[in-house]
User: What shape does this take?
Amino acid sequence: MTTTSNEDTSIGYILAAFARHSSQVAISHAGGEWTYGELLERVNRMARVLAAQGLRRGDVLALATGADPDTFALKFAANALGCTTWVLYDELGPSLLVEMLRYVEPSAVVLTPGRDDDRVLAALEQVPGTRVLALGKHPDAVDLAAAANAESAEPITVEAREEDLSSITLTGGTTGVPKGIPRTFARTSTYAPATLERFRMTQLMCTPIGHLGGTLAEVVLAAGGRVVLHQENTFDPTHVLDSIEHERIQFLWMQPSMLHRLLDHPALESTDTTSLRLLMVTGGPSAPERISQALNRFGPIIMTGYGTNEIGQITLLSLADHQRPELLTTVGQPVPGVQVNIRDVDHKSLPTGETGEIWVRGPGLMSGYYKRPDLTAAAVQDGWFCTGDLGFLDNDGYLSVVGRTKDTIVGVGETIYPAQIEKVLHRHQSVQQAVVFGATTGPDRDEKICTAVVLKPGQDLSEDAVAAWVRAEMGPAYAPEVVLILPAMPLIGSDKPDRVALRRLATERITGPGVTS
Assistant: This one.
């Protein structure tokens, strides 16, 4: 048995921090507030319930519980037992959900009654041997919430060890079989006093807990800050702006498309946002003009950057860097301890300024993809990880990302990087979100440049006008041949654009319904 706190592990440190901040408010949610003391008691009770249900060190617990505050309590409780947690993305397609469950093989799945539980149960029928648990009354599952109320709130013994897996994050599955990225309980620099001091803020969680926002929320909680939970399944800019003003939000993480929607919302100008101290925007490309717009509206509190689940944060464009307009086309410089190398197809280093594949190494690199040594061997070589992204470094070490290797479009005499066209489209006054991709059709498998566009509220723009804008800004070789004006962008579970669905729509536009490329 380990000691009760076991602060050498991340979960031991987090629970000890909860005890130190017991009287402070930890989580605000639709049902009220939990102090750190109440959260810790909930964790202790939940850990005893999970143990009574047979969960043991090394088991995997899947959480299909959304942005319920008990998602945090369950995650910490399972981790205290030495279990690995996997937070499922919302609205996963049936076949993808089954595929993920078969791959991860969780010992149990926790669902919320009435919250898409039929879909989860239908998937579990195809994965026999997985126990079903619930947060509330459910005819086919044990009610963990009721059982927890009958358990003792006394401190539990932390069974986790540093080398055990604390969590598995699955890639979104846009380009193939999902891959699991495991994390251990080893404490990282994230829990250094200086880092925690910076994150002692009030954070608005307006994205699923399985996203980066949930990881950052754990840092906020370890620091003694407060997390305000939105329990909707989708990003709602109206609710976000209302919470910023009334909850005095200080910290917010968003993807670029979410920032764009916030900037375009009519209530933004009349909303008091003076409480904000940090807006972190990562997870995709954003036009420099949009970042400048955010800086003008919110002040010098914007931080952007680049990272992957496999290694964590790779680069950051600091608050000070955002005051230099010429740097807004970059994703910043490598964070301390991380190295970036640009390589050609033969894995040879390229000179400064030349575009190639982005390779990185650093202390946060995963040990390997979960149960996939073949994929690990292909992606990790001599301690370096191949991101699959394309970019270049300037003379001062600032990185620019131009797209993904798999998304590169081979045009007529040109290699097209989608991110470059997306940045131009995002400069258009009517465009809220744009995704550029290639679609191949016909016997010659010619690849056409395609774009999907979502317009700002109240705007009208023709498909021809979209193509003409790119042609005028970049030249005819970059003009999209297929333009889709959509009411909303199709998304995968990680809230990133669903390029598979977009290619299908573009192919149908080219060849007609029912014909695939």
Notes: The first strand starts at residue 25 and ends at 29. Residues 67 and 231 are 5 Å apart (CA to CA). The chain is about 30% helix and 25% strand.
